[in-house]
Amino acid sequence: MAFVLSLLMALVLVSYGPGGSLGCHLSQNHVLFGRKNLRLLGQMRRISPRFCLQDRKDFAFPQEMVEGGQLQEAQAFSVLHEMLQQSFNLFHTERASAAWDTTLLEQLRTGLHQQLDDLEACLGQVMGEEDSALGRTGPTLAVKRYFQGIHVYLKEKEYSDCAWETVRVEIMRSLSSSASLKESLKRW
After folding, report:
1. Do the Cβ atoms of 83 and 164 come closer than 8 Å?
2. CB under 8 Å, gap of 24 or more: what pairs does 56-62 form?
3. N or C: which end of the chain has fewer CB within 10 A?
4. Nearest-angstrom CA–CA distance, 174 and 60
5. pTM for the full predicted model
6. At residue 92, what are phi and psi to the nearest 5 degrees?
7. Crossing angle of the two packed helices 2-16 and 28-43, in degrees rounded to 10
8. CB 161 within 8 A of CB 99
9. Three-state secondary structure call for residue 33
10. Tens digit of pLDDT for each residue in 14-65?
């Protein structure tokens, strides 16, 4: 668990930390909420993933579609925003409320919402009108489809504890994999 938590902390620092030339500067609160969100995701673990090996699934995270070096600045922002938004949506359902500790879940929702607010301010600055279709094409659409697959999986597994644990681990893994996006944003 410590390794996964370390990966998530690295994601927050790399993907959302200050210092990149993003066309705007994310607030320090954005970084603090990101760190807290990672800690909360680690604390939300209710059962060992080893007990859920039969429920493991390859959700086909679109790694090649979201590789930072392959995206333009507006696309990278769009993908990061979509990942945060979809994560927020996933944990902001009635089924999620039944699966997780209510206090931790509410803190996670609040933190994700704050990060979305900060990112949306930047997203508006870097995306022009010609970029408005980015959410419906390419890498951002691949992220949406990835999360649709996660929703289908949860439904198929009838929102079992093991299904939620598998998804929690997958979300942590996918967010960690998106760290290369920030590296691309630093070059702009």
Report:
1. no
2. 56/166, 57/153, 57/166, 57/170, 59/146, 59/149, 59/150, 59/153, 59/170, 59/174, 60/146, 60/149, 61/146, 61/170, 61/173, 61/174, 61/177, 62/139, 62/142, 62/143, 62/145, 62/146
3. N
4. 10
5. 0.79
6. -115, 45
7. 160
8. yes
9. helix
10. 444 443 444 556 567 766 777 788 788 889 999 998 899 999 999 998 887 7
Contact 172, 99 (CB under 8 A): no
Decide: 18 and 62 in contact? Cβ < 8 Å.
Answer: no
31 Cα distance to chain centroid? 14
DSSP H helices, 44-160, are 63-66, 73-91, 94-99, 102-126, 138-156
Tokens of 186: 């630093």
Are 33 and 113 spatial neighbours (Cβ–Cβ below 8 Å)?
no
pLDDT 10s per residue in the chain (188 long)?
Answer: 443 333 334 344 344 444 344 455 656 776 677 778 878 888 999 999 889 999 999 999 888 776 656 677 778 778 888 999 999 999 999 999 889 999 999 999 998 898 898 888 777 776 664 455 555 668 889 999 999 999 999 999 999 999 999 999 888 887 666 655 654 554 55
Distance CA 90, CA 88 (A): 5
Token reading at 33: 């909420």
